[in-house]
Amino acid sequence: MNKIIVLLCLGLMGCATVAKESKAPQQVIKPVTTDDKEMDSVISVFSEVIKKTPNQSGAYYNRAVAYFYKKDYDLCWQDVHKAESLGYEFSADFIELLKKSSGREK
Question: What is the pTM of this model?
Fold first, then answer.
């Protein structure tokens, strides 16, 4: 449970600090856990953030990363596209890894 709280705090701080026009390079950071139940909790928190502030590109980014680690690539791609439409720029490394993992092009 403490791992979830730390993960959520870091993610929410990222959501609060990522400007729409941000072009800062991103790194794929491994989560503290890849346990499906804990990832579901992380996804749930970012889904709530998105529900309250639907134009928060950082929330879509963080949820996309959580979907990636759950190997739910279709939902990951959806959040990648939405975050990019809101001005978020994913790292080329993340996109390449997602392409390889999902077996499809963007």
Answer: 0.70
Cα 18 to Cα 62: distance, rounded to the nearest angstrom: 11
Rounded CA-CA distance 22/42 in Å is: 23
Is residue 16 within 8 Å of residue 52, measured between CB atoms?
Answer: no
What end-to-end distance do the CA atoms of the chain give, in Å? 34
Structure tokens at 58: 């950082």
Provide CB contacts within 8 A for 45, sequence distance 6+.
Answer: 8, 11, 12
Q: Which residues of 73-94 are buried (b: 16+ CB within 10 A; e: fewer)?
A: beebbebbebbbebebbbeeeb
Q: Topology of domain 2-9+29-102, per CATH?
A: 1.25.40
pLDDT of residue 27 exceeding 90, the answer is: no
